Structure formats: structure tokens, C-alpha cells
Amino acid sequence: MKGESGAEPQPGADAPGESETEPRSGTGEASAGSVAADGESAAGGAGGTGGAEGNGTGDDSGSDTAPRRGRRGRLVRRTVLALVLLLLVPVLAAEAALRVNYLGDPADGTYTRGKDAIWLGHAWVDGRKTDADVKALADRLGKTGIRDLYVHAGPLEHNGTLPASAYAGAPRFIAAVHREAPQLRVQAWLGDVLASESPNGMRLERAETRAAVVRSTREILAAGFQGAHFDLEPLHSGDGDYLGLLDDLRAVTKARNAQLSVAAHQIDPVPGFHSFWGTTTGHPKWWSQKFFGQVARRVDQIAVMSYDTMQPLQSTYGGYVAQQTSLALEVTPASTDLLMGLPFYHENRFGHWNHAETVAAAVRGVRLGLSRTDADRANFGVAAYVDFAATEQDWTSYEKGWVR
Q1: What confidence tens digit (pLDDT) does each residue in 373-390 have?
Q2: Which residues touch 291 (CB under 8 Å, ≥6 apart)?
Q3: Which of 269, 274, 339, 361 could hold 303 in an S-S bridge, CB 3.0 to 4.6 Å?
Q4: pTM to 2 decimals?
């Protein structure tokens, strides 16, 4: 997710990648070998003057060169094949492991704890939504386990400030929500792009920027929000400035009896994977499990953006979500609400395949991970991203699979 533009927030940037084309079986090497063989025959006769039919000089250097070229060609092809297999075999093994991770039955009772959340677009605080829309939203959510609304109230400026005009309609929206559904909490969703992979964006290493973010948080809480939800991307694992900012923000929210929540990157599927991916692509994407735990201990809620996973199948996506759920449960304190993201949006691109990343697969993965790791965890839920892109099928899959 990103809230760095004034337009509707979009899902979090997926890790860049390159598509791979599988070589045609058999045809590449066979045809190359035929060319080499033809080349060797031609080399002996094309020179005209050097062989048995030549002018008798006895120069047969062409017949020596062609076999050497053929051997070099075969060596190159075999080397390329070995490298492809070296890369492909671990990927296939990992995908197979994820499919296995999707097998089995979730434990009884692994359903909503009434602590779910949903991300809402900017239309709710800029005047586009009416009181009638709020009533319809309250009616829909009344049948679910959703308690927290993360309504887009930014974006933050790169210097950490937040113009009051960005959330001018917030007081009216908050009052309408409390009138129609007093059990819901309204948190301000504040995001921005970080200058971690480009020269443009927010720079958390600057003390004055962090201080401005803290001031902006005081301002939105004074406007009536019951919490602040931060989505700063791309946020690299181990960022000490971010941890320091969370410490400062926690002091502000705690003093006002408000919530501090964050959107979190996925956890390394294998230890150190963020370092490998960052080195090869320039975009680390994942967090180490240790850093995830450091963040989780500093907030009231942490919502994993468990979508944009590059998974090609529902089974591998669901297995991946099960793994992410287990990894997050292992390091999240019992006192912190852990929420796993559900993809209530639909795109087809390298990082997100619509046919694979379904709400049904995500919910089943969440239940499997919860069952295997901490089935009785009370402070646990799911978070739906995002209201304006959701379909009826998304809502049905969430309600039937998780709410019951």
C-alpha cells in the first residue's frame, strides 16, 4: 500500500523481477548441433584450396578450428543449462514446499476474534462520501469481526508535515461512524514514500523530519481520530531511525489513550532473504524476523501486507500466507494485535496474480498458520485491503471463511 499521492492509495509496491522463458525442450541443442556439424563439413570444402580438392598446399587449419568451435559451443550450452538448473531447482523446491504447507485442516475455533480491520480510501474524509454511505458501511461491517477502520488521511509531506486540508472532512466522518457503529475505532492512515531506494521521498534519518511526523500525529489525534496507522514504504529491514520514530510516536498515542499501528512488510521466507533480494534487485522487500519483532514490540497493532507475493497458484499463495502467519506469531508479543492482510483488490502483474491471490486462499492460509503456531492467540485478526476495490466475492470469502 502507498498513500504517497493525493489519489486513492494503491497496494504496496511488489518486488521488481524479470519474467523467465523456459527453453524449448530438445530443439535448441539439437538444432545448434546440426549447425555445428554443417559448419564442420563446410569448413573443409568452403575454403576450396585447402583440402583434398584444394591446390595441394596442405593447409587444413579450417578443419581444426571447426571442431574446437563446436566443443566450445557445447560447453557454453551445458554451462547455461547448469546455471538455469541451479536457479530453477531451488525455486521449484520452494514452491512445492508451499503447496505442502497449504495441506491439512485448520484447528477448530480458528475464526475471527472480533479484532479485524479494513483500510478505507480517502473519499471518506474529503467530502465524497455521505452520511448515507457511512450507514451502509456500518450495516455491512456489523456482520463481521471488523473493529478498526484505517481511513486514508494523508499523505504526509516528505518533510513529515500534514496539511489539515488533507483530512478536513474527518470530524464529520468520525461523528457519523460513532453514531452508526459506536463499537468501531477510526484511525488515521498516514503514508509516504521513503527515500530509501530513490533520491525523492521522506528521509527518516533527519531528526527534524521525525519530529514533524510526531507533531502531525498530535494534530490528527486532536481532530478526533482514535489512533494513527503508518504505512511508510519501502522500509528496509533494520532501519533504526524507524524504530526510534515508533518510540516517540508511542509516547504520544499512549498519553492520549490512542492506538499506534503500522503496516508491515513480509518476513524473510528463508533467513537473510531480504539481503539476497536487495543485492540482486535493489529492492529488499522483506524484513528479517528479528526486525519484525522489534517493530511489533513498539506498537499496539501490526498488520502484515501479506499480498503482492509473486505466487502463481492459490495453493502456493495460501501456503505462503500460512508460513508468514507462523513467522509473525513467533515474534509478536501476545499484547500486540497481529493482523494478516487480505487482498480485497484485483490486479494482474508479475508481483500479484489475481487468480492466485484470493481472499479464500489467504483466509485458509491464515487459519493454518494460526492453528500450527498459536491457535488460542487472542489478539489476532485479519485486515482487508482495500474498501474501494472490494467485490462481493471478497466479502463473501471473508465472511464464510473467517467470520462464520
Answers
A1: 999 999 999 999 999 999
A2: 237, 238, 239
A3: 339
A4: 0.79
